[in-house]
Each structure stands twice: as structure tokens, then as C-alpha cells.
Amino acid sequence: MTRWVIRTPTTDFAPAVAAARAGREVVACSAGPDLPGTVGGLGMTWDLTTTAPPSAVLPDLSASADAVPLIPVAAQQVPLAGRRIKRTLLLRVRPGTPDDIRARFEADLTAMPAHITAIRSWALSRVDTARQPATPWTHVWEQEFTDPDGLNGEYLLHPYHWTHVDRWFDSEIPSAIVEPAIAHLFRWADEPILR
User: Fold this and answer.
1) Whose CA, among 115, 118, 139, 188, lies 20 to 30 Å from 146?
2) 86 to 10, 126, 148: CA distances (angstroms)
3) Domains within the chain, CATH numbers bracketed
């Protein structure tokens, strides 16, 4: 069983979600249109957990879709009733980054929820490049928020974000390890995604 994050230009997602949920291979499925402010999105983001490849479960999946298989590193589920914002950050750590530096970067990301209370459930994953060798991504950092203000306000403006996390991304800082091209995707979800 594999959890996937999929960027796709498809915008009529309701019939596709219903069809995917009817499949025996699908354990969990959620999708929705990317909200304004998304960077690097194609129009819609899927979260899919399945025992089969996405193309087998979603036969109408666009050829331009970006299906990213995940290997969990760390996660925490925090109860949250009702609709929520699901945020997904796809990123690439520069090739040749030493393992100890990569581990410090991952530790700084997973420490964020202890400092930023707007983060509810969260997950950090590495990308399964054995399943998807052509992917441009190495990591996926996901969170759930009660509303867009939690993401665009407290999360992005928090001092911990600026001082401990942004340094890994800012190409003007010599110790930065994240490539400039990222996908910062967020959408509404009706139920928990990060379980």
C-alpha cells in the first residue's frame, strides 16, 4: 500500500473521486481544486492511498499529472472536526547534500508543530524514487490547518519558520540545501487526510 500526492490539471474531480473510492484497491482518496496562492500547482491536488498505481485507479489521469509516491519519515495526527485546509509542499534537496545535513533539515521541519500551534495533523515523507525515478522531488511536507489564515498567517509568518526553516530554502544563504523550484499546494478537504 502506498500513499500518493498527485498534481493534475483535472478540475472536475467529484466523479473521479467517487469512482476511485469505489475501487477495491483504494484505501483513502481525497481531491480538490488548488486555492489562490498555490505555487507550482496544476489546478487540482489529490491525496490517494492505494495498493495499485494511480493510473490503474484513476484511468482518466492526465498524462501531464505528477504522481508522487511517499515513504513516511514522521507524522502526527491531531483531531480536527469538519473542513480543513490541506497543505502540501513538494521540494528537492540538492544532490550531494550530506546525510547529517539532510537529517538536521528534516528535524527542523518536524519540530515546527511544537512551535506553530496552527499546524494540526502533519507528515514528512521522502519520495519513493524506486517507484517514480523521474520525479523532480525528494521530500513532501504536509499539514492540515483549520482555515487559510492558519497557513498564510501564523505558519508562514512565525519566527520559527523564518529563523530555523527558511534558511534551508533561501538561495542567498550559503547553507541552503533546497532547490528553488517548489510546489506549495493548498486546498479545502472535507475530512482528515493525514491519518
Assistant:
1) 139
2) 18, 18, 9
3) 2-189 (3.30.70.100)
What is the rounded CA–CA span in Å between residue 139 and residue 190?
Answer: 25
CA torsion, ordered 143, 195, 70, 115, to nearest 10 deg: 30
In tens, the pLDDT along 111-144 reads 999 999 999 999 999 999 999 999 999 999 999 9
Strand-strand pairing, 122-127 and 84-91: unpaired
Q: Could you tell me the pTM of the whole model?
A: 0.94
Which cell numbers hold the place of 2? 502506498
Q: How far apart are CA 20 and CA 27, in angstroms?
A: 10
Sign for the pseudo-dihedral over CA of 1, 79, 13, 124: negative
pLDDT digits (tens, 9 = 90+) for 35-64: 999 999 999 999 999 998 888 877 777 778
